[in-house]
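Input chain follows. Return structure tokens only.
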Amino acid sequence: MKTLLTERFALYAMVLIFSLVVAFHALVLLGIVPFEMVWGGRLKTREQMLQFETVSILLNLLMLAVVAVRAGWLRVRVHPTVLRVVLWLMTGLFALNTVGNVFSINPTERLVFTPLTLLLALLCTRLAAGSARATA
């Protein structure tokens, strides 16, 4: 997998994807994208949407920061083992999210976000399995 998927590609792809996901969730918060399209189509009220989308944006920004630290773009001192553990946790999160998206009652979420979370799981795996040094 290391020769098929470089660390540099994984870093740039994840920054792009996380940036687009944050923008997407911002559109949900603004009401431009209907909230029935996220969280498996299970949100019932605007208040639920505000809580869940806020958490989603914060988590995606945190994961974006983890990738930026891994790339060496964000100069924060983090022990390489901690960074590796966080990337493995992100891998698990995206793998579970992929399963959740498969069972979404919203067809768009099922068709668009299932492959996206699977891709993120693979990209996180690549970074977690790679060297802990900055590579971008």
